[in-house]
Amino acid sequence: MNFTVAQIAKMIDHSILRPEFTVEDVRTGCAIAAKYDVASVCVRPCDVPTAVSLLRDTQVKVGTVIGFPHGDSATEIKVAETELAVDQGATEIDMVLNIGWLRSGDIVSVENEILSVVKAAGDAHVKVILETAYLTDEQKLAACWAAERAGAAFVKTSTGFAPTGATIDDLALMRSAVSAAVQVKASGGIRTLDTMLAMAAVGVSRFGTSATAEILEDLARRQVNVPGGRA
User: Fold this and answer.
1) Is 100 within 8 Å of 67 (Cβ atoms)?
2) Which is deepest, 55, 194, 197, 212, by most CB within 10 Å?
3) Which residues are catalytic?
4) How many Å separate Cα 169 from the centre of its chain?
């Protein structure tokens, strides 16, 4: 896989989601995102106004999480969260689907909830978090199909708060389940450049990680000795 640092950066959603983060931690995370010109930051809902203000003069988008991390908020709450986030300037919405409904086989309710969030998001891109650690392959496929039918822009593996995160097998399965109109985002345990490259090889186009600086600096070091500036 031949990528420049700039290309890899535009595949990263820099994650600033840990519950103990202070306002200063959010500011530091946004500074990292701006420095490397990543695709977006993914911040807690309370931090959307701060991130929008800090990144206003950059090309970095602001995203946030909905129904995070358990996915069990009432649909009306997820819709309200989405509407507020968009009103405050978020342009990417990472929603956790209702895991319990999915595991119960109530795909209709899962799909209708995603559709409600997609409608509330308007022009903002919706990424549907499956939380694959808790699902069978059949449930993962059903979730991907429901997300595409509901108009989601992405299907995404994990919140980062479940027992396990993204795996190559899950990502390949998700990529096979959706059309080219839907992108696949890997999240949960994305700590190294080699992990990103392996996942990109199976069709992943976006990555949620807090290891942005380490990954991009690693690629920059590798490119020093690679003709043409690619690794």
Assistant:
1) no
2) 212
3) 94, 156, 185
4) 18
Contact yes or no for 215/189 (Cβ under 8 A) = no
Q: Which two tokens stand for residue 159?
A: 């919140």
**What does pTM read for this prediction?**
0.95
State how far the Cα of 82 lies from the Cα of 45, in Å rounded to an integer. Answer: 9
H helices within the chain, ranges in order?
A: 5-9, 23-36, 48-54, 75-87, 99-103, 107-121, 137-149, 168-177, 193-200, 212-223
**11, 16, 17, 20 alpha-carbon torsion, rounded to 10°:** 160
Residue for token digits 């200063």?
24
Residues 6+ apart with CB under 8 A from 61: 39, 40, 41, 55, 91, 92
pLDDT of the residue at 13: 98
Split at pLDDT 50, 70, 90, the class of 229 is low
CB atoms within 10 A of CB 15: 25
* Residue 231 pLDDT greater than 70, yes or no: no
